[in-house]
Amino acid sequence: MKNVTDSFVSLVHWRSAGSFGFNTDILATNLINLSVVLGVLIFFGKGVLSDLLDNRKQRILNTIRNSEELRGGAIEQLEKARARLRKVEIEADQFRVNGYSDIEREKLNLINSTYKTLEQLENYKNETIHFEQERAINQVRQQVFREALRGALGTLNSCLNNALHLRTISANIGMFGAMKEITD
């Protein structure tokens, strides 16, 4: 409670001093600092984030297209397998007396291998999409953090100069002197 009272005392002191300076009370300035940092992040990061997301979206769409092409190839293989199955069925009718069980076994193996291939391709497509999404999210996070940090450092470097730094030091010394007089 004393910190809150001290921050109000320092605000009153600043109004009477008639100058601008930095409040070094961390608890009183966190909300202001946080809003400034968030404003800088939003201002500098929204264009970069939009571009990154658009690029990432295109990559994901390309990956999906490639997966769909793979799926199309698997469907072609399935059609070939079905044609082969029909051929095997015709042969099975001709050789039913001699080897019906062997032909039936080959047919089942062919169907099972085709479905396994399709299932593997579908799993690969899903894993690829999930991996690309996770990688895109991580890249966007890293890029936003870098841009925000770069923007914040640029803003700080452009705002601080020797005259402002000396004026801030003088104001802080004056504030500490006034606080010492109040406490004495």
From TrEMBL:
Residues 71-98 form a coiled coil. It is found in: Membrane; Plastid, Chloroplast thylakoid membrane. The chain crosses the membrane at residues 26-49. InterPro entries: ATP_synth_b/b'su_bac/chlpt. Its main location: membrane. One of its GO terms (cellular component) is proton-transporting ATP synthase complex. Keywords: ATP synthesis, CF(0), Chloroplast, Coiled coil, Hydrogen ion transport, Ion transport, Membrane, Plastid, Thylakoid, Transmembrane, Transmembrane helix, Transport. One of its GO terms (molecular function) is proton-transporting ATP synthase activity, rotational mechanism. It is a single-pass membrane protein. Signal peptide: none annotated. It comes from the Eukaryota. Belongs to the ATPase B chain family. In plastids the F-type ATPase is also known as CF(1)CF(0). F-type ATPases have 2 components, F(1) - the catalytic core - and F(0) - the membrane proton channel. F(1) has five subunits: alpha(3), beta(3), gamma(1), delta(1), epsilon(1). F(0) has four main subunits: a(1), b(1), b'(1) and c(10-14). The alpha and beta chains form an alternating ring which encloses part of the gamma chain. F(1) is attached to F(0) by a central stalk formed by the gamma and epsilon chains, while a peripheral stalk is formed by the delta, b and b' chains. PANTHER family: ATP SYNTHASE SUBUNIT B, CHLOROPLASTIC (PTHR34264). F(1)F(0) ATP synthase produces ATP from ADP in the presence of a proton or sodium gradient. F-type ATPases consist of two structural domains, F(1) containing the extramembraneous catalytic core and F(0) containing the membrane proton channel, linked together by a central stalk and a peripheral stalk. During catalysis, ATP synthesis in the catalytic domain of F(1) is coupled via a rotary mechanism of the central stalk subunits to proton translocation. This is ATP synthase subunit b, chloroplastic.
